[in-house]
Amino acid sequence: xxxxxxxxxxxxxxxxxxxxxxxxxxxxRASTPLELFFDLCFVVAxxxxxxxxxxxxxxxxxxxGLLGYATVFFAIWWAWxxxxxxxxxxxxxxxxxxxxxxxxxxxxLILAAGVPRAFDTSDFAIVTLGYxxxxxxxxxxxxxxxxxxxxxRACALRYAVGVAVCQIxxxxxxxxxxxxxxxxxxxxxxxxxxxxxxxxxxxSTHWHPxxxxxxxxxxxxxxxxxxxxxxxxAVQSGLDSGQAIGDLLSLAAGGLLIVFSMWWLxxxxxxxxxxxxxxxxxxxxxxxxxxxxxxxxxxxxxxGVAVDHASGxxxxxxxxxxxxxxxxxxxxxLSVWLLHTGAQPLRRLDYPLAAMLILAAMAAGEAxxxxxLLAAALVAVRLLARPPGAEAERA
Length: 395
Description:
Shape: globular
Order of helices and strands: HHHHHHHHHHHHHHHH
CATH architecture of the largest domain: Up-down Bundle
CATH class of the largest domain: Mainly Alpha
Number of domains: 2
Number of strands: 0
Oligomer: single chain
Helix content: over 70%
Structural class: mainly alpha
Distance between the termini: 54 Å
Radius of gyration: 22 Å
Largest sheet: none
């Protein structure tokens, strides 16, 4: 009997813990199973966006496809990024935190369900609903942090207010006629991006640089995996339609070289030092990953377009099919170059040179294979340029 109150108190502590800032230098700060589950569910929305981009490009609807992809991917990326940085600072892993995170996952799945309608008829109602569900759950998390982590109260309240105001704007956007609804996306997106800058002016959240770098790296892996899955599905469709196996082998080999090289180049550098240098550097690094993630998913869509063109199912010229792969690969390389090569990117001009050669290769015969060989050549150049002993230092 004497031990019962202690056992009850222990149970309450497991059910709910104070939401306090975690240390930015905490040892062994790794991604949690909940965060990994969050990423896997979010990639469903990424796959939907990439699939719709694939079909739009194959049908020759360039402007429509790119605009729809950019807007939908912004919602996916921004919701993922906001959760990731919040979790790095305030992950209590108690029951209320887990439930709020599962609500955000449900919102991501609602958003994914609305992606085809957004592309086909420019109806963003379901996408907006899913986005609002995710963001309302995040507002509740920030309000909890404001109540319990009093040292960061002002910053947390600014986050909660800023996110809530933005959601009102996204819902109001649905009532606008089509030209104005499209035009309203840019100011609302800029307002979303400005919220962290405004909130952090009254105090910084204590996110963990190593944890953030790992989270971004893991999401990059998942998006690259989605590209591999999309390319595999496209090749399978080509085989089912009776396409020549030689053409498919060339596309498959080029696609594998591209994705393998993208993985190698991204993880060739450590981001911890960049994230630890200043708030400005961390904002640029975090925001810049929109291009890396969008380009990585876009490669899968482009490989699908290349397979469709080879089988005669794409309504665009050969150079257009090559561009569907070359443009996202070049954008990916340039983004990695600017974000991951440190304070003096001009010392590594091999990245932009490779990007230019890849863009030129869009008009070549067997464009996908040529692009893959160029990407692999960049990996080889980076390995040869590495100073002696660099591998030992990385280890």
